[in-house]
């Protein structure tokens, strides 16, 4: 099967909805009920969004090594 990728807005919405919940409300099964999609689709969306977030990590988060007060003496 070669299904097209879901729109990015939809994938991000599912991911943010799941990260905004905890406990029993954060399960893949609950998210699939909420979104009306299979658990496999939800899992694939989570995975795609996390890959992008991790790829952009170093661009978004930067620690200046000279800014640490404990290293300057």
Molecular structure report:
The protein is mainly alpha-helical. 56% of the residues lie in helices and 0% in strands. It contains four helices and no strands. Helix 1 (8-19) crosses helix 3. The longest helix has 17 residues, at 39-55. The protein is elongated, with a radius of gyration of 18 Å. The model has no long low-confidence stretch (mean pLDDT 83).
SSE order and pairing:
Blueprint: H1 8-19, H2 28-35, H3 39-55, H4 57-60
Helix pairs in contact: 1-3, 2-3
Which structural class do the helices and strands define? mainly alpha
Largest sheet: none
Number of strands: 0
- By oligomeric state, this entry counts as single chain
Supply the number of helical segments: 4
What characteristic shape results from the CA principal axes? elongated
The pLDDT mean sits at 83
Poorly predicted ranges: none
What is the succession of H and E elements?
Answer: HHHH
> Which percent range describes the beta-strand content?
under 5%
- Rg is 18 Å
Bin the helical content.
55-70%
What is the straight-line distance between the termini?
A: 61 Å
